C-alpha cells in the first residue's frame, strides 16, 4: 500500500503531466513543495530564475489531487509589478489568480473563488475587510498556506534603526499578525533569492515562523568559514566564493546570519 509521500509524488507528477511546458521540478522545488503541503513552515533561499514562484503556483493544483476541494494560497508580495507578473504566469498554467487591488474581483476573492490571492502587506494587515476575510469561514476551511515573497524586505523595509523615523513600509514588520488572522497551523512559505537575505532569525521573528524546514545539514560549518567583517565589496566577493556551489542548487535553511549588501528594489504603490 502506497504511503503519504507516494501519494504526494503521484499528485505532483499528475499535475506536471497536465501543465504546458513544464515536465518536471528541480529537487529543491519538490522538497519545498512537499514540506509546506505537509503543514511545515518553510524558509526557502533559492537563486533568481530558479523557479521559486512555481512552487506556490502549483500548490493548489497538487492539493486538489490529494483530495482538498477548494485550496487557496495567499501570497504577500512587496511590489505591484511582481504581483502582475505572477498572476500572468499562474493564469498561463491554468491557476486562477487575482490581487486585492482588483475591485472587480472583490466578491470573488471574499467568496474563495481564486486559488491564488495576491496582495501587499498593507492590504492584508492594515485594511479591515481583508483582515476579516482571512478570519472568515471560507478561508478558515480552505486556506492552504500563506506565502511571503521576497521575504528579505520584511526587516529591510519594515524596521528602522532610528526610533525617531518611521519605517519605509511598517506593515512588513507586522506580518506575524497573519498567524492570528488565519487558522491555527496554517503553514508559511517564505521565499527569497539567496544573496539577498541578511538574517533568517529576523525573518522567523517577524513572520512568527517556527520549526523551519531545513535540508542543509552542514550549513553551520560552511558559515563558520565565512570571513565576516570585510568591506561591502570584499564581503560580497567572499560570499559569492564561499556559497557558489550552493547558489547553483538553491538553499532551504534557517541559519544564515548577517549578510550585507542587499539588493535595492523600486517600490510601486498599490
From TrEMBL:
Note the PROSITE patterns from the entry. HELICASE_ATP_BIND_1 (PS51192)
List UniProt keywords, sorted A-Z. DNA-binding, Isomerase, Nucleus
Its name, as the record gives it, is Helicase ATP-binding domain-containing protein
Q: Which family does it belong to?
A: Belongs to the helicase family. RecQ subfamily.
Q: Which SMART domains match?
A: DEXDc (SM00487)
What the entry lists under Pfam families is as follows: DEAD
| Residue ranges occupied by any Helicase ATP-binding domain in the UniProt entry | 33-213
Organism listed in the record: Branchiostoma floridae
| Organism phylogeny | Eukaryota, Metazoa, Chordata, Cephalochordata, Leptocardii
